[in-house]
Amino acid sequence: MLKIKSLTVETAGKKVLNDIDLEIPEGEVHVLFGPNGSGKTSLIMSILGFPNYRVVSGEIWFKGTNITDMPTDKRVKLGIGVAFQNPPAVRGVKLGVILSQLASDEVDKRRLAESVNLPPEFLERDLNLGFSGGELKRSEILQVLAQRPDFAIFDEPDSGVDVENLEVVGRTIEDFLDGRTGLLVTHMGHILRYVDVDEAHVLLNGTIVCSGRPTQILGQIMREGYRWCERCPKARKPS
User: Fold this and answer.
1) H or E element that contains 139
2) Share above pLDDT 70 across residues of the chain, in percent, rounded to a whole number
3) Is the Cβ–Cβ distance between 177 and 152 less than 8 Å?
């Protein structure tokens, strides 16, 4: 579904990703761990093709198509969806209208909102305007549910969400990803209490330094933090 080969990326003249290799087969859900500033957001922006993230070398393939130089809107139409960690507020555009535009057919917007514990009246509010951190997170996930992309990326879905709503969000993502392909991007991995993943990767200093069993890697992070990753020979800072 997604194949990234030897990807190196710069933004504002600074190298933020260095020789990234990542492959996510169709029907699998992977998790990407990494501390703050490790390059997780840069990788998401590069997959989406944001123009200020310049590919220096390497390729990004999606569903057998080389999308390295493809504009963002065409990548989305191919079936990539993202729930951002810090989405913008848009005054004058209702959340319910956005959901209708994202959906390929008629959807029960009230039912979708209730599935992420978001009151139906939020559908009549301006997109993300005045939303709390947890409400922002649920609004973003709600939009991905409406879009139903072939490949879904959830950026820090457990950030800023209280314990009660973390379970709601986690189980909703788990149900949505059943039979789909996805990538969870997280700092601490709390979302993995509710979402089953097939493989884990650790991103450090713009490079994927290791991959393996999710429970084993998360356990190591919980015991030692990301310091154990720094001992890996691949954990070099981009020059």
Assistant:
1) helix 133-147
2) 94
3) yes
One-letter-per-residue 3-state SS of 55-124: EEEEEEEECCEECCCCCHHHHHHHCEEEECCCCCCEEEEEHHHHHHHHCCCCCCHHHHHHHCCCCHHHHH
Q: Residue 210 is encoded by which pair of tokens? A: 């290791």
Angle ∠(80,49,217) on CA atoms, nearest 5? 65
Distance of CA 82 to the CA centre of its chain: 6
User: pLDDT tier at 238 (50, 70, 90 boundaries)?
Assistant: very low
Compute and round to an integer the Cα radius of gyration of the chain: 17
**What would the pLDDT profile of 102-136 be if each residue is shown by its tens digit?**
876 667 788 888 888 888 889 899 888 888 877 88
Question: What tens digit of pLDDT does each residue of 130-156 get?
Answer: 888 778 888 888 889 888 999 999 998
Q: Residue 209 in contact with residue 202, Cβ under 8 Å? A: yes
What is the pLDDT confidence band of residue 79, given thresholds at 50, 70 and 90?
very high
| The one-letter amino acid at 163 | V
Q: Which domains does the chain have, with CATH numbers?
A: 28-44+78-225 (3.40.50.300)
Please determine, for residue 220, whether its predicted confidence score (pLDDT) is greater than 90: no
Q: Tokens 């720094």 identify what position?
A: 230
| DSSP three-state, residue 14 | strand
| Tokens 């609004």 belong to residue | 139
